[in-house]
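Standup, Tuesday
Yesterday: got the pipeline producing structure tokens again.
Today: sanity-check two examples.
Blockers: none.

Example 1:
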Amino acid sequence: MIVSLFRSMAKRLARLRDDERGVIAVETVVITPFLLMGLFLSFEYYDMFRQKSLMEKATYTVTDALSRENEVIDDAFLDNLKATFDMMVGTRSPSQLRVSVVRFHTVNGGSHELRWSEVRGQGEMAPLSQADMEAVNAIVPLMVAGQDLIMVEGRSKHVPVITNGLLSDQFLDTRMFMTLRFSSQLCFTDLCAPSGTS
């Protein structure tokens, strides 16, 4: 009696093991979360690189506009450049824009003088000081003695749209250098001195 009961249970277990009905439904339940996560992460990284690309184009546009200026620029001019930057980038979070003008001198083996630096927008980015020039020396391209160089930096935070909480916010930074096209220096209100020599 017990032996036949075990045989009957063994046959039923063997049939259950060999039964393939519902396998696709189970596989779908197991695989779907991974497929959706991969799709969402792909979208998030695409969106982040898209925002970075837009920031680089906007930074270049701002730098190019500054390089063509012949007149002294003021707060209103920089405010409008920041508004143009924000319109081009279209970020969902606040952005910052720092505009600095650096002059190169060949005395003492070469040094960079900060002419002026202004920041627009709320965040951690602050105007450069002359003490910051040591760090800037490593990133500024080669310059001619007495030459002024415009350095424009942008910063924005990328906030994930779908996977917020799973992916952390990322700060996106851009930097662009350009020489002046039509004048020897770019002056800001009350921060313009005669062109120096090396």
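Example 2:
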Amino acid sequence: MNVLKNKNQTGYKAAIHLVVWLLLFILPYLFSTNHTVDLERHLKFTWLPLVYSSVLFYLNYLLFIDKFILEKKIWVFVGINLLLMAILVSIDLQLRNHHFFNIKDVVSLPARPRPTKQWIIYKDTIYLFFPIIISIAIKITEKWAKTESEKNAREKEILKSELQHLKYQLQPHFFFNSLNTIYALIERSPALAQETVHNLSKLMRYLLYDTVSEKVDLSDEIEFVKQYIALMKLRISDKTTVQTNFPVLYEKIKIAPLLFVSLIENAFKHGVSANNRSDILFSFAIKKDKVIFIAENTNFPKDDKDKSGSGIGLYNLRKQLELSYPGKHNFKTSVENNVFKVLLEIDTD
């Protein structure tokens, strides 16, 4: 794929160069007010200078800049170009003085004095500097663009690797919590435990296969969230009320996978009490290109001696948001009236 892409870029670049030089050769005819085509005049004053320019341009663009400037052999580069310019100026002088190039045609008005040899040398020298300068500018720009492209490609690969690592961290964590739920059900309700294993297999299939892509459909992610909440509800008593508010999606919205699992898990971990009533709320909203997720739970802060929560889930979430949506997300947590609140806004545009 990369080879094909490079070939296409090379072909495109060659086509651009061909079109530019063709235009430069045709322009004298396009802007000429004289309908009689003077091929001899165009050859002397337009085509030959363009030939000199193209020779200097491509020698520098294809060979000298890479071989000398990029290798920091600046004086060799300058010397070779000065030698080439001297040769081309000398050739131009010889051709102009040849019988086929009568110098009286240089001017259109006979009353004007003919240009001197020194003037022609000066003019040709200045003229030949331009293709060298342009070739350096284009080559350095292309080199910079290539470097930036390679840098972006490396950063993208690192980003992809880091995100994959975060997913691998989340999957065992998620699986471990789910197994604890099933273990608690086996003695109490074997039939429900069996059904839960079946549902867990669906969740794991989504984790292992569907989340391989960088983005998934938001509808699939919400369905996964629903099933995960149902799984977590099996661990709580009637003293905890869980409310959900999930929209019906009529359009496809893509989002990075597994952004909400840690927040749901956190709500169940810190929002459930064995002795007191508690409430948990999960809500999704879609506003234009923004996905808004809200989680609220009665706050039962853990004792400092309780080491059951390692905090890896929220750490992974913050890291994933930084990698997947840099500058395009808003993640806030707060405690109000003994209710822990989470707001996560993601700009999917």
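Quick observation on example 2: The helical segments are 2-30, 39-69, 74-97, 117-188, 190-208, 218-233, 261-270, 312-324. The chain has two domains: 2-151, 213-347.
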